[in-house]
Amino acid sequence: MISLTISSAIFILIILVLNPILITQFSYSIIYPHHLTIQPNLGPIINDPNLKSKLVVKGIDFPTSMAFLGPDDILVLEKNQGTVKRILNGTILPRPLLSVNVATENERGILGIAVTKNVTRNTTYVFLYYTKSRTRNGEDVTEGKDPLCACLYRYELVGNKLVNPRLLLSLPATPGSYHTPDHLGGKILIGPDKNVYVVIGDVGGHMTTATNIKGAQQADGTGGILRITQDGNVVHGIIGNKFPLSLYYAYGIRNSFGMDFDPVTGKLWDTENGPSYGDEINLVGPGFNSGWMQVQGIWRPTGPSNFLPGNITLNPDNLQNFGGKGKYRPPEFTWYQDTGPTAIKFLNSDKLGKQYKNDMFVGDFHNGNLYHFKLNHNRTDLVLPVSLVDKVARNDSTLRPIIFGHGFGGITDIQIGPDGYLYVLSLYAGGDDCNPILPNAPCFSYNSPMEGSIFRIVPINK
Fold first, then answer.
1. What is the mean pLDDT of each run of 10 residues along the chain (462 residues)?
2. What residues contact 63, with CB distance under 8 A and at least 6 apart?
3. Full residue range of the structural domain in which residue 93 is found
C-alpha cells in the first residue's frame, strides 16, 4: 500500500512537471505547421541490423490505405483521385479498379478499405469508406459544395473491376462547431466475428452524446467505432438499441487513423489523435469510452477549441456512460507531443524473427517513425522501457527504445502480407515548402500532389 502511494505520488509529480512543457509544445505547433520528415536517400532505416526495408512500389498519388488480394497483389487508395489502384508484382496497373467522385478538402477523400472472401456467396467483397461528392472530385474545394455523406460501401470484385456497389452506412461529412472538414477517420476492419468495423472521428466538432457532451444532441454516428454485418445490418446494441446508437462498438473518439485486432486474444486496439497533445494507443473493449472531449491522453482539454492541455485527469467522473453500459479506460500509451499516430498492426507471423511474433507495430505521420511494442502476459498492457514507465512519451529521447524504424515520411497504413512480412504505406516523397519561417522544411498540404510508396520489411539477406 505504501509503495503504491509513493508510485502514484511520483507519477503525478512527473505529470505536473510536464504541463508547462505541453503549453510550450502547443505554441510551437501553431508557429511551425506539421511537416513530413526528410527521408533518407536509400529509404527508411530499420534499427534492427538483421532487418531492412525494401521498396515495393512508388508513384502512388497520396495513398491512404491498402489491402491484399493475394501474394504480390495489393489494392491501394488514392485520397484525392477517388481511385482504387491495383499493384501486381510491384507494378501499378494503368487502369484503376474503381474511380468514384470524392470531396477532398483537408481529411476528406477515399480513406479506408478492407477485403474479405465470402465463401457462402463465392465472391470477394471490398469495403470502401469515402466522402462522396455530387459530380466531381474536389468540388468542395473549388465550388464549396458539401459532400453527400461519409459513405461506407460494399463492392464485389469481378475480374479487374469493383461492381455492384451497396451503400451500408451514410454518416455525417459536414463539419460541426470547428467548421473544418477534419476528423473523418475512415479505417475499416473485418473482425474475428466477421463483422465490419469502421472508425469515424467527431467530424470537425460534432457535439453529441458520443463525444461526452451531456445535454447535447443525441449521437449521430460520429465520434466512435461502428460495427455492422457485411450486409449492413446492426449486430446488436452495446450502449443502446436505438439507431444510430446501436451502431457503436466504442465512442468518445476524437479521431483515429488505425485499429487492429490482437491475433492472440481477439481484442481490439486503436490509435487516437489529440488536438496538439495526448495522442493515444488504446485497448478497446465493447462499450469503450475514450473520453473525448472531457479528457485527451491524461489531460482535461481547455482553451480555444480544447487545444490546450489542462489539469491531469486520471479518473474522469463526468463522462457519458449510457446507464453504465459505456466504460472509460485510460490510454495504454500517450504522446504529449503532436505525433499523429496512424496505423496499428499486429505481426501474426515469425518471418521477422520469433522475437517479433504477435507484437504490435504503430506508425506515425509527423515524424516518420515505426514503433514496436511488446505486450504483457495477459496482453492487456504494453511492456515499456524505464524511460516510458509512466506510459507518457515526454520527448524524442524517451521514445528511442521503441522506435523500430525511421525515415518513412508520413505513414498512412501498415499491413501484413500473405508472405508474413510487414508492409508500410507512406507518403515517402513529396511535400511543399509552405513554411514561411522555415522555408526549407517540407510541409504537408492535403490538396497537393504527394507521392506515396510501399515498403516491405524483410531480413537483411532477402
1. 40 42 32 54 91 96 97 98 98 97 97 95 96 97 96 97 98 94 97 98 95 91 98 96 96 98 98 96 98 96 89 91 96 94 98 98 95 98 96 91 95 98 88 41 62 96 88
2. 76, 77, 78, 79, 412, 413, 425, 427, 452, 454
3. 2-459
The CATH number of the domain where 221 resides is what? 2.120.10.30
Q: How far apart are CA 105 and CA 90, in angstroms?
A: 30
What pLDDT is stored for residue 451 in this prediction?
Answer: 87
**Closest by Cα among 281, 283, 306 to 293:** 306
Grid cell locating 453: 510508396
DSSP string computed for 238-284: SS-SSTTGGGEEEE--S--SEEEE-TTT--EEEEE--SSS-EEEEEE
Q: Give the count of beta carbons closer than 10 Å to the beta carbon of residue 441.
A: 17
Domain count, the chain: 1
Residue 215: what pLDDT? 83
Whether 326 contacts 239, CB under 8 Å? yes
For 451, half-sphere exposure in the C-beta direction (CA atoms, 13 angstrom radius) is: 7
DSSP string of 23-56, one letter each residue? HHHHHHHHHS--BPPPPPTT--EESSTTEEEEEE
